[in-house]
Amino acid sequence: MKNALLRFRPCLLFLFFAGGLILSAFSAAAHTFSTSYLTLSNGPDRLTGEWHLALRDLEDAVGLDINDDGIITWDELSARKEAVSAYALSRFRVRGDGAMGTLHITRLLVDHHSDGTYAVLKFEVDGFQHPTRLEISYNALFDIDPKHRGLLRLEDHGQTRVAVLGPENAVQTFDLNKPAPRSPFLTFLNEGIWHIWTGYDHIMFLLALLLPGVLVRRDGNWQPVPMARPAVLNILKIVTAFTVAHSITLSLSALGYVHLPSRLVESAIAASVVLAAFNNLFPIVAERGWMVAFTFGLLHGFGFANALRDLGLQSGQLAATLFGFNLGVEIGQLAIVAVFFPLAYGLRPLLFYKRFVLQFGSAAIMIVASTWMAERVFDFKWLPF
Length: 385
What we know:
disordered N terminus, 12 strands, alpha+beta, 12 helices, 6-stranded mixed sheet, about 50% helix
């Protein structure tokens, strides 16, 4: 009995550590992806729109919490209406057939999205009528959060166009004489790739899983795999398991079947990175890395789902969006693997790989991810990424 307890003590330690991290992740507020929602309607008289900006983002941009009590009230938002409007008007431009439009804020409201409360700016655009070509220039919050995205839905004579506005594509042009694309597949294929490449928590989680991918656990030690084939198969299993899990929860959540608050999901994602790196230093699941990838990949799928649901796409467009985004995630991961694997496979026989790359790398990932956990749980920002 004593030997059995000793044998399972590492498992109990791992489960205790995992439980503590995940409970702490779900016990406090956390930083979430910064997203705003723009809807433009090209009506018979003029172009009108609605812009949803998260109060937490506006607090960083212009300051809303006047009494600094951590709660933004309607009175505080109303008192800062001019500052909010000035900020919005300075960060958003619309041209119609080459003519610069003039934006007028008509109403300030609030709305509740899955990740918190948003200010709603209703506006009208003067300066042109019945444009055939629209140019949108968006530059909100990029100086505060380079990963911020503006999700745009453009309604024009029964057709819907969708775009993602980010630092690399802040200006986009729409030819309204041409039929709208049947689906936003390509837009979100690209976004899925960048979601992985700019999502540092996703990259570190993937690296934590890949680091032991060219090794095998024997007699309590990591040993290099003798041939490339089992290592390649192992890594492909890990990447595929993560994508499948990511796709399941992303799809279920975006379609409205499952919902977790975004402010809690981000903390749990940081916890999963810590645990994946911890498993490299104190292996509990050494031979089935794909199981770890699948289990924690379920959490990562919630990271973008709420934004897709709040965009308000029709079912056909949402299906194409999900497929494109998930495929983009897979492509982004495979690109990382294509760089990682040849280096790791070549270094695997060296003590340097086991002692420095695996152990030091995993420890570094744990430290960074633990800092993310603290930032997201206690709502502060220390790391620049």
